[in-house]
C-alpha cells in the first residue's frame, strides 16, 4: 500500500475500515496509563539526579507538573474504562485528542523546567528522557497519528525554546532531526497497520461474501426441495410429497392419529372436457381445482395433494368417517361451483369422491387404505358421478 506524507496527517483509526471491536481495542490501548507512568518515572529519576548534582532549580515544580498530569491522565482513563455504556467512539477519540495535547504540554513543561539551571551533563540525561517520551508516543501513533504528532510537537517546541533561551544552539537542530526520524518511523508503522487493516477488511468482505453465498445456496436448496415436492400446475404437494407424508404419519406406528380418513376423488368426464375445450382449458381447470383445495380451512397436520392426472387426495388424521364424508361433500360442492373459461364460454365440472377410514387398532397399511378409497370412488361413478361414497355404504346413508 502506497502511503503519501499527506496521508500521515489524515489517517486516523476512524478513517479506516476497522471493525467496531477493533476500534474499541485501540481506544483501550490509547487510554492505557502505562506510557505516562514510565514517563513519570523518568522525570522523577532525572529530577533526583539533577538535584544530587547540585542543579535542578525548578526540579520540584517539574515534579509537581508531572504528578498533576499523571493524575489527570489516570482520572481520564478511569472515566473511559468505567463508562456505563459504550458511547460513540468518536466522542472518546475527541477526548483522547485533547488529552494527548495536554500531555504534550505537560511533559514539555516538566522537561523545560528541568532544563532550567541544569548542568550541561544533566541536560543530556534530560534530553534522553524527552526522547523516550517521544518514542513512546511514536510507538502508538499508528492508531491516532494526528493527536500524537501534536503531542510530540508541543513537547519539542518547548525543548527547542528553552535550549535557544539558554544559547544551546545544538538542541534545536538535534530535536528537529530526531522529530524527522520519528515521523519517518511513524509513517512506516502507519503503513504496516493500514496493510493489516486492509487485509482484515478484505477477510471480512470475503467472509460476508461466503455467508451471502451460503444463504443463497440455502434458499436455492429450499426452493429446489419445495419444487421437487410441489405440483407445478396446481401448487399442491405432488405424489412424492404425498408418499413421504403418509410414511411419516403412519397410524400403525402412532395410534394417536386414528381414526384416520382418506378422501380420493377425480374430475368427472375429464377426458371429454379436454377433447371439447382443449388441453389448455384442462390445465386451467386443474389449476382452479388447486386454488380451491388450497383455500380449504384444514388443520396443519392434514394434507391435500395431487395424486396424478385429474385425481386428488385429502389425508385426514384424527378424523372419523362421518366427519370425512361431510368434508368430502363440501369439496364436491366447492368444485361444482367453479366456472372455467374455455372456448370463449364458461364451463363447469363435477367430481366423484371416495372416502375410507381406519378405525383405532386397524392394521391396514396406506396401500390398503388407498385401495378402499378407490373402491368407494368407483362406486360413486357407477351410481351416477358427482357424489360422495364411503367404503362403508351404510355410513353414507346414515
Radius of gyration: 44 Å
Kindly report how far apart the N and C termini lie. Answer: 88 Å
Describe the main β-sheet briefly: 5 strands, mixed
Mean pLDDT over all positions: 79
Helix and strand element order: HHHHHHHHHEHHEEHEEEHEH
Give the domain tally: 2
Low-pLDDT residue intervals, each spanning 5 or more residues: 1-11
Spatial strand order of the main sheet: 2-3-1-6-7
> Share of helix among residues?
55-70%
Shape: rod-shaped
Q: What is the SS-derived class?
A: alpha+beta
Total beta strands: 7
Helix count equals 14
What amount of the residues lies in strands? Answer: 5-15%
Note down, in words, how this protein is organized.
This protein has 398 residues and is of the alpha+beta class. It has two domains: 5-207, no CATH class; 239-397, Reverse transcriptase/Diguanylate cyclase domain (Alpha-Beta Plaits, 2-Layer Sandwich), CATH 3.30.70.270. It contains 14 helices and seven strands. It has helices at residues 5-10, 20-30, 34-52, 59-81, 89-115, 120-139, 145-165, 171-228, 239-248, 270-277, 279-294, 321-336, 366-382, 393-397, and strands spanning 260-267, 303-308, 311-316, 339-342, 345-348, 351-358, 388-390. A five-stranded mixed beta sheet has the order 2-3-1-6-7, with helices on both faces. Strands 4-5 form a two-stranded antiparallel ribbon. Strand 6 (351-358), helix 13 and strand 7 form a beta-alpha-beta unit. Helix 3 (34-52) packs antiparallel against helix 6 and helix 5 packs antiparallel against helix 6. It is rod-shaped and about 130 Å long. The model is unreliable at 1-11 (pLDDT under 50).
